[in-house]
Amino acid sequence: MNLILFGPPAAGKGTQAKRLVEERGMVQLSTGDMLRAAISSGSELGERVKGIMARGDLVSDDIVIALIEERLPEAEAAGGAIFDGFPRTVAQAEALDRMLAGRGRRIDKVLRLKVDDAALTARIAKRFAEQGRPDDNPDSFGVRLDAYNRNTAPLLPYYEAQGKLTELDGMGSIDEVARAIDEALAG
User: Fold this and answer.
1) Entry's PANTHER family (predicted)?
2) Residue (of 92, 42, 102, 32) closest to 72 by Cα position
């Protein structure tokens, strides 16, 4: 099964993906993790990514797709992938569909964790005050949330038209969201 966890930053996608990896043996394909790993590997692709990111540029869709394609055999052997942080645009979704189709695969489900922007912002502000994590800075979080709402949320109709979108309440506890995900995957 290939699954996309969809939702804004801090919606709990990473937490739920890690749980699915542990419980179901799936492979989490997080583009951020893959970019950092490519750089650390010292590979030719990693060197290209390092240069792009050092300039402050966005890594192209072609490179991100190449990173994902590199990891697909591992995900296929494990019985499926959890896409976390990808796709972010309709163009990326279309490229992912083509790549998977070329391997006789597809996205099976897209689970959208619906959350309240104001509650997320409050959660981040509290976490920043308690833990001081730089990525939880309320100002930078607002920028990330705006970018999600502007650029990534338009993917919803794309997957809805394919009959793959399931919307879940992401405002519950970790266990409540986990139960809702498990029910969606069983159904």
Assistant:
1) NUCLEOTIDE KINASE
2) 102
